[in-house]
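Help!! Second protein's tokens look totally different from the first
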Amino acid sequence: MLREQGPRALFAKTARLTLRPFRILRDEGPRALSARVLRKAHTRLTVNTPMMLVASADAEAVDWTVPAPQLADPIVVKEGPVDISWIMSPPGKESGGHQNLFRFIEFAERAGHRCTIYLYTSSEGQVSIPEVRAMLSSTDAYPHLDADIRMFNRDTGVHRETQALFATGWETAYPAYLDSSLARRFYFVQDFESSFYPSAASRCSPRTPTSSASTASRPAGGFRTSSAPSTA
């Protein structure tokens, strides 16, 4: 890093890593900091096991052959702004797919629509919303949004005012499908997702959301597609 980006970038990264525990202590308290330390120690001392992007409980709960009851009569908006919820994986600083997605959320906000972002992860580790916000504000690659950022909880789902619910990747199609709201479902497609995976079960399975939601204009299960140009 010193050779490629120079001493200033190295110093900035070192400072961020050094100050991170103090930021967590300030924003989330000593209990959260202790939990993070214990999880990190557990990760270092145990053998890593493969992790799916979708939670096993969500994958097991979905039956794509039977339309979910909440999708039978979804909300219809005839006029006025729309309350939109977006389910996505936690964004990364260099994630072009997330940056493109955030630009489209910005377009929606400029058009007068209300947006809420829900972060979905199958990891047992806790995602820090303050850290995500700090990352987003530290780079020009992400536009500034008025959207609230929350963690997705399957038990509570999206907020009740949601009228349109977007899945933004194959793993988020599961929680979007299972959510109990009457919001109309959409799938934000940026690319042919299965091409990002090796020729194995995650790519070839006929029952993955990728095969049903990103290759048809009206896939089974109540999803509609919304395409976007790829930035990859």
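Here's the second one for comparison:
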Amino acid sequence: MDEFIGALRETREWSASVRILGASGWTVTRNLSSVSIVKSGDNPAKMLADLNNSLGQVGRIAAEGKFGEASLVVQMAAGANPVVSRRSPVDYLQTFSRELIDTATDAWAGDADAALALPGRWTVTLTHDLASALTTAEPSVTWRVLPEVSSVEALLVDVPVWALGPTWDAEKPAIFLVENLEEGNVLHLGRSAIVPLSSATDSSQAKQIFARSAASQRRVPNCPEAASPKALTPTLRTGLRLVDLERAAWRRCATMSWVALSTKVEILRADGALVVEIFGLQRVTHRLERAVVEVDEYQARRAYEMWEWASAPDAVDQRLAVQQVASLYRDQPPWERSADVYEAAAAVFATLRRDAVSEVLLSRRSARTLALDIANRTTEQVVAAARVAIERSVASLLAIGGVIIAQTTKVLTDGQAQDLRILLFFFLIGLILWNAAVEGPPLSAPLDNLRKDLRTVADLLTDSERDEILRLESIVSARRTVFRIRLVVPAVYAVAALAALLVR
């Protein structure tokens, strides 16, 4: 916090010094937080001294001297010696008087002090980012230092509504520090804040709120550079100075809410307009000449609430209900009646939901029945497979016993008995392969394909409801039984094969 307060104090001092220099003949140009301070004259040393006296140890300065057709540039940075960074070709005899030729020669050789001593037309330029200290102290926020409230309004009002995202809904939240904004006047939007530069309290509170905010997740169809309605929503205002800015933010929030709820949006960049198409019970289009809906704050709030309702993570048919109601407004834009559309859409959704609930309950019941039927049939198949395996194993053991008796009673020679053992061994190995490739997979397939089948036959159920069906005890038990039988049967065949080969 101490580092931030120090950075804020440094920013205020820079801002005050820039205003003083502007009042004393320097030309000040602002571009967001970047400031360029320029002055021309024939005494570069005095101009540099003015900068040092006003700003202390300043940042990067460029002093360009022009001497007829010749010119050079001296670059100066804080904590470093000045250097001659650029110089044009020069004819010393034609450009400088005899007593200045040596000085000019030294200057063109790279002597910055000699260059600054040359009389001519000098232009000194200082460029600085007023927000650099704040960015270093709190890099999770984009800081902007602006001279007046109108500068902030220009970023919101003068920029097309479909291109507000990079400023008002960027990856990092933005805090605008306004130099001529009185303390007590604050405006917070979804991902930005406008606060007085003079108020450390308001700046610190905004930092604590927005430094913890999550990264932007802009999702506005057909408008990749647009800000989301949530980012443009005013959430806090104190004082009266920012009332007009709050109203402008609400209108743009309502605009993006309707853009996100519409079926299709066409951007007419040349005309600065939007064409919004809504396809519900009928297809209607409305043209926004200034690309902003002109509604009062109440209608704008209801439009945002309707978008939030229709875009919630668990929303199902809410957007469809809004489009059905809004499509009835053919002669009048629906956003002028956002409150009515919201109430009617909620009623339509309730009707749709009643029918949908019945379908979901029926689908859930059918899915459970299907799953239990598959589990029961799988269990029956497992029992049949186990019975067949037992019968084969018993037959194999009897065959082994017959070979042993025949060999003992000399009915079979040792060579014939060994051939029968080998034949029985390979027969049992063949049964292992047959079980693994032919008999086993059909036992597992119904349960393995059940998840995919549920997505098709129970498409009205959510993923969590499908998972709940798959976790039924009958399904879990059948799956375990299949797993065991597919391990035990080949193992039994393997034991029988070894017995056929080894038991004498």
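Reply: Different proteins will give different token patterns, so don't panic. The mean pLDDT is 85.
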